[in-house]
Amino acid sequence: MQTWSSIPVPRVPGEPRPLRLFDTATGEVRPTAPGDTARLYVCGITPYDATHLGHAATYLAFDLVHRVWLDNGHDVHYVQNVTDIDDPLLERAERDQDDWVVLAMRETALFREDMQALRVLPPRDYIGVVEAMPEVVEIVAKLLADGFAYRVDDPEYPDVYYAHNATGRFGYESNYDEQTMLRFFAERGGDPDRPGKRHPLDALLWRMKRPGEPAWPSELGEGRPGWHIECSAIAHNRLGMSFDVQGGGSDLIFPHHEYSAAHAEAQTGQHPFARHYVHAGMIGLDGEKMSKSRGNLVFVSKLRAQKVDPNAIRLALFAGHYRADRAWTSDLLSEAESRLDRWRQAADLQAGPSAVDTITRLRDHLGNDLDTPKALAAVDAWAAEALSTGGNDTHGPAQIRTAVDALLGIAL
Ligand code: 5CA
Ligand code: ZN
Q1: 3-state DSSP helix/strand/coil percent for the chain, to nearest 5?
Q2: What is the pTM of this model?
Q3: Which residue in 28, 293, 297, 396 could disulfide with 352, CB within 3.0 to 4.6 Å?
């Protein structure tokens, strides 16, 4: 698919700091250790509605990963998918008497506009599931041939399922016990009670065509893929195994990332799928997770239409730690707007305090599991000093502007 346009990222003076990130699989903050090319996969949207602030928060967190790696001199190969065929998309299209293809195209286009407005660096590969269909089919056929998958005993719809513990490592990513797995599996798109499965946790790989549903002809029979195999295939075919970071919101810890990893590991016989599994916390509104199914949404496009500065949206979401579940409030946005004003006033000065220590602190905090609250506080301190006691470093304001642009993606 067409991705969105990139914006140049300036070089920041001084020494970069390596990136350490919390890894869900090991439960620790560990160094990332990319080679010359750092490899990042982040699960993309299911385009049946506009981008809300929960999505934005997740993509902004991984935008910081991208930026810190760039600062460290890595080339970043970033891959993101679009789940452009899935049950919720078909249901919404049916409800609104819309064509599912048109709905997906329209919402994906809006997502790209939102990401660009938010100054999110684009993925190198932006891949729709529909365009990746042959890749998915090939892997499902291989899993079947190798005995890691089977067809349910249903002559009408012999769907293909993945035998959940085919690798013997199932559960290493989420570390959930079976009861928790079963609960999330049922809540998040799984079908524990499908008759004919060998185990309730076996996951759908290929669904045979049902009347009225879109389907693709293939050696598996006409049908469409299950969810986890899509990201598994799209990521593995572009980034290989043991890529640096598999990312998404914490609602994807299980089942989605556990099965994406398991499918790729079964298929290749290699471990691990990703070296870090990184998850952003959930953004809520009025005490509940912001979600399309609950309908408690604040859309990025609505805020843009109200002329809210996208840099303030960034700052509002960075005011909390990316891993914390947190609430969106109008106060959060107005505080971010005044912070942006202060930073702009200070960066516009002819001279200010030296930026050297502030930039070091900014890098240290971002390198330490993207500690944005502390990173913002470091810039606040510089701006407060610049606006009160001044300073006579004529490079200070420009260097802060550069660092905040490159490392936080904020244009002052
Ligand atoms: N298409 C799948 C992933 S393959 C999907 O989860 N799509 S989504 O549109 O529901 O979500 C897109 C991304 O936003 C995912 O990474 C998801 O974890 C994240 N996300 C969804 N809701 C929130 C929220 N309230 N707060 C933070 N992140 C969220
Ligand atoms: Zn995904």
Answers
A1: 45, 15, 40
A2: 0.97
A3: 396
